[in-house]
Amino acid sequence: MGRAPCCDKASVKKGPWSPEEDAKLKAYIEENGTGGNWIALPQKIGLKRCGKSCRLRWLNYLRPNIKHGDFTEEEEHIICSLYISIGSRWSIIAAQLPGRTDNDIKNYWNTKLKKKLLGKRAPSRRAAARANQDPSAAAAICNGAGATTAATAAHALSSSALERIQLHMRLQGLYNAFTTTNAVAAAPPQWPKLETLIPTRPLPAAPAIQPTDAVVATTTVQPNPHHLIGQTLTAAAVTTTSEAFQSDHQLDPAANNYIPGCIDQRAKLGFCPSSTGDAAGVEMNSSSMAGVFAGYGIHDELYDFLYKCESVGGLQDGIIPSLPELQCPDGGAIVGADEKFSTWTSASCDYGGSGGAGDYDLGYDQ
DNA sequence: AAATGCGACAACCGCATTATC
DNA sequence: CGATAATGCGGTTGTCGCATT
């Protein structure tokens, strides 16, 4: 026996909301609030909608100060940074982008940013559906060398984890490209770990976050790294509860409180200078990268990668060119970014992390 | 002009977590 | 303390409009 439905499916309307429904819901909530009970709300105002549907409509569309339209470079950068750090925790990411909803960000990632970063056309849903029925088609979708191994690996790893691996590899590839002429290239840096910075669930209250690994645990979020080096996302900013966000970062109509590049305003959002040494800060800082380039860290690379890649043979017409080969930190296998990631993800590449016997740990349990 | 493919976005679904009794 | 309801969240699907064939 499954879970009882939250509402009578037969009597509720589904599909797009009409302007009349929007007006009803908006007017009621603006006047009375939600009353703390979404399930009862539609009956109160005579809407033939599921309470969950009303909540979603309000949060994603009708709520004041919702931003629609194109994302700015700063917003893209924050999304990418956080996605690499924590994966598809859209609600947390959305908490850093006032006016944006998790649904918006999720859609934007899936339709635009992912392609931009991974540099290949993502298979359409139709193509993916075909691929599910035909393994050879799946390989075809993962065009390029190593498609078969990629498809195989995809069975073992969630798409989110896979994307994060690819993002890291591409960034690492760029890093190697940068360092091939640098003396430090002789000592390949440790790869940034891909562990999520916080347990999948439950997420503890902000003060309780105790990073297990300082290297993993700090996410430097730099809306524009060329303006803001070393701003860190504090654990408080990673609090999942909407209440926490609302109280600290309320989208106050009068306080349009996000001004990219403005440290004071950013502090309101939970960004604080890394120099504060906040022990609960979370970082996805690639220690070696930050150290080597004295301020040029992974997020600067990300910025360059997104917007300035031409200088290192990067994005051109949205297509990411072949990347330099990557070296496993143990000095072992030399792998190509696209071709062999499945090899080293299945092999026991040691990232020098805290995850057990050195086995690669995505930090994902999917 | 019609059919098809595709991208973008809104909305739904179901599971996990939290609150309440 | 367990059961149940409510809420939050992330993944998935439906739909629409535009581009291409």
UniProtKB/TrEMBL annotation:
Localization of this protein: Nucleus
Residue intervals of the HTH myb-type domain: 9-62, 63-117
Main subcellular location: nucleus
Highest rank taxon of the organism: Eukaryota
Molecular function per GO: DNA binding
Pfam families linked to this entry: Myb_DNA-binding
Domain Myb-like span(s) in chain numbering: 9-62, 63-113
UniProtKB keywords: DNA-binding, Nucleus, Repeat, Transcription, Transcription regulation
GO cellular component: nucleus
SMART domains: SANT (SM00717)
The protein, known as: Transcription factor
Organism ancestry: Eukaryota, Viridiplantae, Streptophyta, Embryophyta, Tracheophyta
